[in-house]
Amino acid sequence: MTYRLFLLLIFCFTGHIIQAQSLDYTLSDDSLVNKYTSDKRVYYAARTDIKPKIDGRLEDECWQKYGTWDGSFIQQQPHQAAPPSQETEIKILYDDKYLYFAIICHDNEPENMNPILGRRDVNTGDMAGIALDSYNDKQTAFEFNLTAAGQKVDLMHMGEYGWDFEWNAVWDGKTSVGDSAWYAEMRVPFTQIRFSKESEQIWGMHIWRWIHRFQEESQWKLIPVDAPAMVYIFGELRGIRDIPYKRNFEVMPYVKGKYITDTESNENFGSGVDGKIGITSNFMLDYTVNPDFGQVEADPSVLNLTS
Hints:
2 domains; single chain; 3 helices; Immunoglobulin-like; 9-stranded mixed sheet; mainly beta; 5-stranded mixed sheet
């Protein structure tokens, strides 16, 4: 009995060591990279009862009264694990409906900042953004970015360096350019992300900044350039508590028409609806009525029987 108990203790102790070691990043040849990647970073969001005006100026009372600013970003490229050329600060607030993000991108050469306006989901000029692993599954995440010119870039992380830029959420974001920094302010509805029903949310979080003129990326929690994946290395976002669940319901109707004139007139009209229903905070039902399959049903099939 004593021998079995001894084996059991050895097994549990060994398993605990293996689990602890699995949290250490040792894949890089640079020990400093391994150190910064293994360091656990946690940010605690603060609840606010004052709603900010999303204008990119960060002058609202809530940004002065609630929460704490955090920084200490680490450069990922071009000089991995080195201090960044410019400092960056972030603050995160929330209420029952929204997450609020503020990012201050300091710059000691403001005349050289690059607020380049582009199309949605196109990376242009100086940028900053945040990704949230709200499932906390270490594989998927929702990312919200702004260029210095105020252009939105949103996407989903899908496994090992897979990204879905076709995902377009409904959220607000504005930027402004000052004399020593540019500022990003975002408002993301909880309905646009999926999370558990736990009273306290624990999410993975990644925050990054791109300085175009230096081709430099700095990160709140370092993700090495040679890492096999990203999301499992994220830092943590804590402090979000008691978010009331609200059922999400989306309707996207469509109509179509076609008129062809050759030897005789041919008219074709159709309509339908697509939509989403939030069953729970982490389960979404997609539905469709009379879906639009293009011309799949209309095109005649032709079988070639000739030689």
